Amino acid sequence: MRKNDYTAGLEMVSEFSNVVMTRTFSKIHGLAAVRIGWMYASEEVCDIINRVRGPFNVSGPGLVAGAAAINDTKHVEMSAAHNEKWLDWLTQEVRAAGFDVTPSVANFILVHFTHKPGFTAKEAEAFLAQRGLIVRGVGSYHLPDAIRIPIGTDEAVAEALRDFAEQGAKGG
To answer: Is residue 1 part of a domain?
Structure first.
């Protein structure tokens, strides 16, 4: 989603030598499996990164795919429009199912759960996985009661979370 109430980080990188801005080609460019991205940082930080990175850390096909993706502005616009449409819709649907959602401008939502048996984040993640919906637990980010749901299979996720809430309300 594109909002103008924050900066992308370029200004901070220019102002502070210890700030790094990274981007991936995963969602907006559709290249998640290629595992390619880029970094904007001070010359000093780039020098250190170049000393510790592997010698061939990006494959030839990855470089070609990344270069093509940069030039495919039509795909980027289509991806951004898809995200804008479904981010708001999914947020509203998940809230209507009874869950708290952190406001987002990203390509995912952060859904919060309780400690109550039948309503935990781990139980929700397992429930969604049984339906073939892959989400990410964020306990390693010190958010053990939340899951990260990407924008994508939105109607299926909303339906599954409604079912999860009903099941939990009935006691499993």
So the answer is: no
Both 67 and 79 in one domain: the answer is no
Q: How high is the pLDDT of residue 69? A: 94
* CA separation, residue 104 to residues 2, 46, 88, 109, 151 (Å): 11, 30, 9, 6, 11
Say how many domains are in the chain: 2
* Domain assignment of residue 89, given as a range: 75-169
- Per the domain annotation, does 3 fall within a domain? no
**Contact by Cβ (8 Å): 132, 158:** no
Q: Which residues pair with 108 in a beta bridge?
A: 150
Q: For residues 31 and 27, what is the distance between their CA atoms, to the nearest angstrom?
A: 7
pTM above 0.85, yes or no: no
For 111-168, how does the pLDDT look when each residue is reduced to its tens digit (9 = 90+)? 999 888 888 999 999 999 999 998 999 999 999 999 999 998 678 999 999 999 988 6
